[in-house]
Design goal:
Chain lengths: 300, 334
């Protein structure tokens, strides 16, 4: 003990190392202990960087959109890392530009779901009783339908464009979020500090935003990560059957769809978008699992 | 409300014949069955009783925060400085809570929000009730922290960085932030150890006198009552069975239940003496005995006890008791 203390010039400094760790730091340290989660974080950050830097990697118009038939179906080479597709477009260029669409639409859709579902769930969970019953039974009805089917119905009804697709997927995921937020809110609602906030005269809105939702942040964040993965998969699925992002706009799902004809002779053509989808979903799931473990104080 | 009696203006809080039941599908829990409480301005009333005697429910009714939808206030009045709390609108209640009446909770570990700094939590109350900027509110919050004996530099630390006693100090700072007229302390020291208990009680008492607040001290510790209260009400099964000044209750207790409570206290002077527990248990609040709720446990039980509820008898100006043993003010059968 004495020697350990000597290592730090003063006793105070010795204790500082234990004291100064903030909550965030503790969580981060716990997260770092989970190797798989760190790998997940690494991959998703890499994919995000690729998406952000897409214009630097390849020109959108000339490489990812313009048809260049003489170069069609080339195997991977130094010039075309993932080869070229059936009309001679560089697959690498299409993958990185496709990442932009997948990530943006996926995140935007989940933002829509979180906003609507979160608000409904918070109201239901906080008020309880009849309001809770009415909101949650409506959500249950939507929860019965698979999300691809629900999104498909909405897109089919309103037409396929980027905004409709985002809203459709967002609405499809709304019931899931309302359930998550509701249960999180219900556990926090009965806690004494919420009661305490009432005794100092806080309004319901103040209590929900200031005390309830902020304490549900952890579980909600975990679900966001996991559902972004599902949303990206849903976009790919819809695009694959031709109801999502339309060709020639590069998207992983429609790249798979158009490439599947050539799969037998030119496997690389579907390998790259398949791998992109696979890695994105995997990394987000690993990240979500890691976050859940790190944010759960019981596993300290 | 138009005709206000003079003595009513002196009373910070007046609860008249309050009846609160918790009604669920299976059963009715009769938590409060006709409670009468008066707290005079600047005075402290101790509300003493066993767990389940209806103390906390009574306290929550003052803020009109009886848990809904099960908790139903069936009858009675709660007058805060002459104004009826039960008929206030939601907005009026929000203005009143924290500004006129504040509450200190039993368990400081759970009554602070873990994700906000303590300074922020104290400032919240100030921001709600005073028209001040966030910066100003935080400054006042720091002053409040100093007041309860915590260095103001710690205002941007989180509750988990504080010990239990310090958290209770923060709780007190929150309650006092808007200098309320009435402070409700719901077993404020139950979760603390004895030395910290003494410190916290001393702090509450000092601040209460400094700001001339009235206080409702809910506790089951008669030692705390002796230390901080001016008057005492003994609650049993949702009724006030005896009320009086400290002297009335501690030296001239009348109700058999009150006697039982004191009989169950160890006496440091007579170490050999055996403690005298009150026989039996608190009655089930879903199925209260007929007549006087205490009669199945009472040593002096009479025929009339199981038949009718005893009336409130005033034994002196300050001392009243609900027991059939006392027919007239002068006559005592004990």
């Amino acid at each position: 003990m004495d020697e350990t203390v000597k290592k730090y010039t003063t006793r105070r400094e010795f204790f500082k190392q234990y004291k100064k760790k903030s909550r965030l730091q503790e969580t981060w340290n716990r997260f770092l202990r989970n190797k798989l989660a760190v790998i997940g974080l690494f991959i998703i950050v890499f994919i995000m960087l690729a998406a952000v830097a897409a214009p630097l990697i390849a020109n959108y118009d000339t490489d990812a959109i313009r048809i260049n038939v003489p170069d069609r179906l080339q195997s991977p080479s130094a010039k075309h890392i993932f080869g070229t597709d059936e009309v001679g477009r560089d697959i690498m260029a299409r993958i990185v530009h496709g990442a932009r669409i997948s990530l943006v639409v996926g995140c935007a859709a989940i933002a829509v779901a979180l906003f609507i579902g979160g608000a409904l769930g918070a109201i239901a969970g906080y008020s309880g009783g009849k309001i809770d019953d009415v909101i949650m039974r409506c959500m249950d009805v939507f929860l019965c339908l698979p999300d691809v089917l629900l999104a498909l119905a909405i897109v089919a009804a309103f037409g396929t464009n980027l905004v409709n697709l985002t809203v459709a997927i967002g609405l499809a995921f709304t019931p899931k979020f309302s359930r998550v937020v509701r249960s999180a809110v219900m556990t926090v609602r009965g806690v004494e500090y919420v009661e305490a906030a009432r005794t100092i005269g806080a309004t319901n809105t103040q209590i929900i935003t200031n005390h309830v939702l902020i304490n549900c942040f952890g579980p909600i964040m975990v679900q966001v990560t996991l559902y972004v993965a599902s949303a990206i998969l849903t976009i790919a699925a819809l695009s694959f059957i031709g109801l999502g992002i339309q060709a020639p706009i590069p998207e992983w799902g429609n790249m798979l769809a158009s490439g599947r004809v050539y799969m037998r002779d030119h496997a690389y053509i579907v390998m790259a978008p398949g791998l992109a989808i696979f890695l994105t979903i995997l990394s987000l799931n690993l990240l979500g699992d890691g976050l859940r473990d790190a944010l759960d104080p019981r596993l300290k | 409300m138009e005709i206000k009696k003079i003595n009513e203006q002196e009373n910070t809080l007046e609860i008249k014949n309050l009846v609160i039941h918790y009604i669920s599908d299976e059963e009715v829990v009769k938590a409060v069955n006709g409670v009468n409480i008066i707290i005079k301005a600047g005075k402290t009333l101790g509300l003493v009783g066993e767990t389940g005697a209806g103390k906390t429910t009574t306290a929550l009714s003052i803020l009109n925060l009886v848990p809904e939808p099960q908790g139903k206030i069936l009858s009675g009045e709660v007058l805060l400085e002459g104004r009826s709390v039960l008929s206030m609108s939601e907005h009026e209640l929000e203005v009143m809570r924290g500004d006129k009446v504040a509450m200190i909770f039993q368990d400081p570990m759970t009554s602070l929000n873990p994700v906000h700094t303590v300074g922020h939590q104290i400032a919240e109350s100030i921001e709600i009730h005073r028209k001040v900027s966030k910066h100003q509110a935080l400054k006042q919050a720091k002053e409040m922290l100093e007041l309860v004996g915590i260095p103001s530099e710690r205002s941007n630390e989180y509750p988990y960085q504080f010990s239990g006693g310090m958290k209770q100090r923060v709780d007190i700072a929150i309650a006092l932030a808007c200098s309320p007229d009435l402070l409700i302390a719901d077993e404020p020291t139950t979760a603390l150890d004895v030395t910290i208990q003494a410190q916290v009680l001393k702090l509450i008492n000092e601040l209460r006198q400094k700001y001339h607040m009235s206080m409702l001290m809910i506790t089951h510790d008669l030692g705390i009552v002796a230390e901080v209260c001016d008057e005492v009400s003994i609650a049993y099964a949702g009724r006030i069975i005896e009320h009086g000044t400290l002297e009335d209750i501690f030296d001239h207790m009348r109700h058999p239940y009150t006697k039982g409570l004191f009989g169950a206290l160890p006496d440091i002077g007579v170490r050999r003496s055996e403690l005298m527990p009150i026989k039996g248990l608190m009655p089930d609040p879903t199925n209260l005995p007929s007549g006087c709720p205490f009669h199945p446990r009472c040593d002096y039980v009479m025929e009339v006890c199981s038949q009718s509820l005893p009336e409130n008898k005033w034994l002196s100006e300050t001392h009243c008791v609900e027991c059939h043993l006392y027919k007239d003010t002068n006559e005592s059968m004990l």
